[in-house]
Design a protein that fits this description.
Helix content is 0%, strand content 48%. It is mainly beta. Strand 4 (34-39) and strand 5 form a beta hairpin. The radius of gyration is 13 Å and the shape is globular.
């Protein structure tokens, strides 16, 4: 059973940066489209960025030009570099396949203060 463990969140001022990591246990990580999802309070979980096994990236309009998703298949790890953060980026960030079918991890909280 694959487990996903997210880390790297925190409290940051608007305009700041954070780098999130997602460690995946088990095999088949390198063969999957992986994505970062976020859930703001009172809102549904949404996909913000995804990356294919070959490195093709798709970003939601709200994060284009600010967030960069990368992956290290040798380490079974997914990353999200977040720059120029805005208060509306706040929420719990999760990683999963796209579409999501693995058990959700605990997520990592990102809070951006204005």
């Amino acid at each position: 059973q694959v487990q996903l463990v997210e880390s790297g969140g925190g409290l940051v001022q608007a305009g700041g940066s954070l780098r999130l990591s997602c460690a995946a246990s088990g095999n088949s990580f390198s063969a999957r489209i992986m994505g970062w999802y976020r859930q703001a309070p009172g809102k549904q979980r949404e996909l913000v960025s995804s990356i294919s096994p070959a490195g093709r990236v798709n970003n939601a309009d709200s994060v284009k030009g600010r967030f960069t998703i990368t992956r290290d298949n040798a380490k079974n790890t997914l990353y999200l570099q977040m720059n120029s953060l805005k208060p509306e980026d706040s929420g719990v960030y999760y990683c999963n396949t796209v579409p999501s079918f693995l058990p959700w991890g605990q997520g990592t909280q990102v809070t951006v203060s204005s």
